[in-house]
Predict the 3D structure of the following.
Amino acid sequence: MNIYFWILRLAALFGHRKAKQLVQGQKHALHDALQWAHSLCGSRILWIHAASVGEFEQVRPIIERLRQEHSQRKILLTFFSPSGYEARKNYPMVDKVLYLPFATLRNAKKWVSTLPLEMAIFVKYEFWPSYLKQLKKHNIPTYLISAIFRPNQLFFKPWGIGYRRLLHCFTHIFVQDLDSQQLLCKHSVFTSSVAGDTRFDRVTQIQRQAQELPVVEGFTMGADKVLIAGSTWPHDEQYLARYLAEHNDLKLVLVPHEIDADHLHQIFQLFEGRYTRYTEATPLNIDKCRVLLVDTIGVLASIYRYGNVAYIGGGFGVSIHNTLEAAVYGIPVVFGPKWQKFREARGLLQAQAALSVRNYKEFARALDTAFATQQIMGERATHYVQSECGATDIIYKKIF
């Protein structure tokens, strides 16, 4: 751990943007937490830790339920990643948002022994040995929610016994599926139960509260075929540009994962400038192009409501992004080949509400199929999402 954090510090010194944000953010986190705790005059703290935005969305329904039913509880929310912290540092449903201090033994000892912690909740993949061991040592109830386990993870390797012991630090582990629970039991971890994934509850909530977006509505109005491409990367965008050129009846709403100047310039060259930027759209220019480029953040989850089919980016890189935000609107979902780590992607494929592609030929065929069978695939998507809701209630009742 110490070596890892020194590497981050070196990266920050050499100008790596995210490393610099992380190092600067965590530098004062411990001091700020202790100072804030002192101001609470003895109130105990419910500590919730999420790695980044995705994990935060998983725990968000529980936070909001807690705030609704136990408004006096003091909630501390920590993030590891700069993107998570920057996106939610002003989140009003908690009392304090901080970076997680680097997980050295010294930091963990001071954090756990000094803060008046009532309990700790971690989300999905967060296993910081120093913190977990200190929480166990001080008998602080510690929970893991929306967890999912696979046989190829480090815990279950012959040399992973040290990491496997960390699983015994949790008071209870809420897993997404029966396979995960059986795997834990096989390795003598019996403090788990199947609760499902709280993201299903969250996307259903988002759907009910979806924003009205006049620009997107005006752009898509009257179109027979609208493709929403969410969280795209360059590989995805190359396929999308080619498909658009081959289908004159298509309108594309393109929402890149990164909207920095370099990426937007790449998109400009790829589409030869033939698009309208969301931030520059007016009633006069909105119908002149077949592509609406969304160059702002925070609206993707509401944009899917205006589409006939959704393409989810990232599957030709590290892994796909959030498929549920689209599926909840009852539209077919298409994504690249790297989806295996995501139970919901497997569920959508098994429900025949989604299609996975490995190359452009499959990409074009999948989109054609999705548009042609939009209604039936969309109904399957809706049914799948609805059938998986309810994890928040199970977890909340068990913990609180």
About this structure: Residues 159 and 308 are 48 Å apart (CA to CA). The first helix runs from residue 2 to 13. The longest strand covers residues 225-232.
